[in-house]
Amino acid sequence: MPVHTIQPSFSGGELAPSLHARVDLAKYATGLKTCRNFFVQAHGGVANRSGTKFICETANSTKITRLIPFEFNTEQTYILEFGHQTMRVIKDGGQVLSSGSPVSIATPYSDTELADLNFTQSADVMTICHASHPVKEVKRTSHTAWSITSVSFGTLMAAPGGVSSTRQNYDGSNPGTSYSYVVTAVKTDTADESVASSATSITNNNLSSTITNTISWNAVSGANSYNVFKSFGGIYGFVGRSTGTTFKDDNIEADPNDTPATARTIFNTTDEYPATVAYYQQRLVFGQTNNDPQKIFMSQTGNYHNFNISEPLRDDDAVTFTIAASQVNEVRHLVPLSDMIILTSGGEWLLTANDGVITPSAIQVKPQGYRGSADAPPIVIGNTIIHLQSKGAIIRDLAFALESDSYTGNDLTVLASHLFAGKTVKEWAYAQAPHSIVWVVLSDGTLAALTYMREHEVWGWSRHDTDGTFESVCTIAEGDEDATYFVVKRTINGATKRYIERLNTRVFTEVADAFFVDSGLSYDGTHTGSTSMTLSGGTNWTHTETLTLTASGSTFASGDVGNTIVLTIGEETLVCTIQAYTSVTVVSVKAGRDVPSAFRGVATTSWAKGVDEISGLGHLEGKTVAILADGNVEAQKTVASGAITISHPATKIHIGLPIQADIQTLNLELGQPTQQGKKKSISEVTLRVEESRGGKIGYDADHLTEFKQRAYEPYGTATSLKTGDISVTMPSTWRSEGSIFFRQDDPLPMTLLAVIPEVSVGG
């Protein structure tokens, strides 16, 4: 007797073949054999990924390109396109232009060096590190004004010149007392302090309220105040501050714990350039040079380019230390959380202090583990680090665990190891909203996606591909979502092209807006201006009459014959086909039905132009493309001379490379005793879906049946999206696997919430 079973969640994602017999694992009940071009949703469903919109070809298609996010605030977010010795800028799915041309600046980085760039950002300044180049800063001064310059380390303040001293009330006695002074210039708002001036010395009696020394100096440009230091026991100690250019010493005791900073030469020669960078506790932190791969360098507090130190050390002085361990610990990444986490080639380290505040004299480096980290920069999700283990394509999370009082984590790839076998991680990026997905570009050009929500113990993998190979990925906040951008290498008419493409939002209100094609473009004929349309000339106003359509502004062209104008008044629409061109404001039309009275001689600004020929598709020349026109799937076409022609004019058209999305369940397990290996016949499958349309189902990829969904919609209108249950009768056959294969290869949305098969079990 047939029984019904249900798989109500797919949160386990695609599982490795080595786990297909592990019915004892909890993940088996929520896992899949195949999850291709679908992604796991946090609540358990799977949805086919949206398509990618074509933005532009990279600056040089023959060279590797890398995308880097630049985020000043939630509104001012950019994508930086780093190519071979050049950088361009993208914002909100389009190139940033100046005088009609892409904003472009020269950089020192070759295409082979881009993968090793490490960066951090504060406000409108991004600091970039590479072990073979001086540290650079990318600065945005306006939407179209960008620059890249080398960083000059040390104080920007000049030491005061013309330092001299005079004495008051000296009685000429010998030998007297010798006094020596130095002065530093301070810019208060940046805490930048110069090195000490040349010393000035003077002999006087023992100082008192009446016997004094006056120190003078020349003003320094940019200085708000000056610190004065007096020699004491072989060092110079602080005696006072002046906002002018003189200071009187009347026997002020020097503070030996506050001395002028000593200039340090740092990061200015080959093999001394740092490879990684971050901000932590108001310090700019660098790690790893060729000469000192295990060393960390921290700037003065609040003075990011100043690595000078005093003697004795002050709390806000620069900090330098080496990670000492029995194995090589090349500093790979610096991750600022509540503590600073240092990821090295040999392990994971915690940088902290007893009271939590890092100072030159209060610093601790504690090992947290010895997994080691690879070159791919880690990702921070909440208070959890996702990093690539140093050996093998193993991705781990790392978070603080109270029970062990240390940072620890899990292997996130162990259940989907087949996706990473023989591959390396090239790049990755995290899109928090709306689905919390880590997008991972692999060395074979495919894409893996990890849906990760640690607090709900959700982590499931899926794999993604396209007609080409993924080479770079980047995410940035845009509106209410995190936008994901890719560099995709494609072969177009035998030539290699590299395109920048943006993953389209999956949020839409009607099926006509669904975008499920790759490297695609859209035509939208919806009118958004003030030009009105008026129908006139009717006698009986039947669909057979030729009518006059008049626009209030220049709208039409001779090539519009055969196109349509869709008029909207209130809840009603009327489709008019253009029969003849008279002028830019007048055409002859026939209505698709008898004209309702609401449209007779009434002007409306709500209209749209439907076309059947779409040009501007040169980036897909020679490619077979999928088409969604006004929510209806058109037959695939081949792009010729940068254009295609569809069967009927449409007002909203999406065109791009087709996407084939597949789901296959694991072999059915019906409980104890196990039904694995027994013959099974699935007579019917119920699919519980959400806002979905289209698809094929069967036992495997070679035996698929398309199921129909049109129910009540009028002819010529798009089939509505379905939320609920769809029942499909399966061909009668007995198989030992008992799995179900589902495919979506139409440019339409599909969200699968559950699979409910009706199963008979044989002997």
Description:
With 763 residues, the protein is mainly beta. The protein has no helices and 62 strands. Strand 19 and strand 20 form a beta hairpin.
Features:
mainly beta, Jelly Rolls, 6-stranded antiparallel beta sheet
Distinct helical segment count: 0
Low-confidence stretches: none
The percent range for strand residues is over 45%
> What is the CATH architecture term of the domain at 3-48 and 661-761?
Sandwich
Q: What's the helical proportion of residues?
A: under 10%
Task: Summarize, please.
0% of the residues lie in helices and 47% in strands. It is built from no helices and 62 strands. Strand 35 and strand 36 (395-401) form a beta hairpin.
Write the layout of secondary structure elements.
Blueprint: E1 3-4, E2 13-14, E3 31-36, E4 38-40, E5 46-48, E6 52-57, E7 66-71, E8 77-83, E9 86-91, E10 94-95, E11 97-98, E12 101-102, E13 104-106, E14 118-122, E15 125-130, E16 133-140, E17 146-150, E18 164-168, E19 177-187, E20 192-193, E21 200-204, E22 212-216, E23 225-232, E24 235-242, E25 246-249, E26 276-280, E27 283-287, E28 295-298, E29 319-322, E30 331-336, E31 340-344, E32 348-352, E33 364-369, E34 379-381, E35 384-388, E36 395-401, E37 406-408, E38 425-431, E39 437-442, E40 447-453, E41 458-464, E42 469-478, E43 481-492, E44 495-503, E45 518-524, E46 533-536, E47 547-551, E48 564-569, E49 572-581, E50 586-591, E51 607-614, E52 624-629, E53 632-638, E54 644-650, E55 652-657, E56 661-665, E57 680-692, E58 696-700, E59 703-706, E60 722-729, E61 741-744, E62 751-761
Parallel strand pairs: 2-3
Antiparallel strand pairs: 1-62, 3-56, 4-5, 5-62, 6-44, 7-8, 8-9, 9-10, 9-13, 11-12, 14-15, 15-16, 16-17, 18-22, 19-20, 19-21, 19-23, 22-25, 23-24, 26-27, 27-28, 28-29, 30-31, 31-32, 32-33, 34-35, 35-36, 36-37, 38-39, 39-40, 40-41, 42-43, 43-44, 45-55, 46-47, 47-50, 48-49, 48-51, 49-50, 51-54, ...
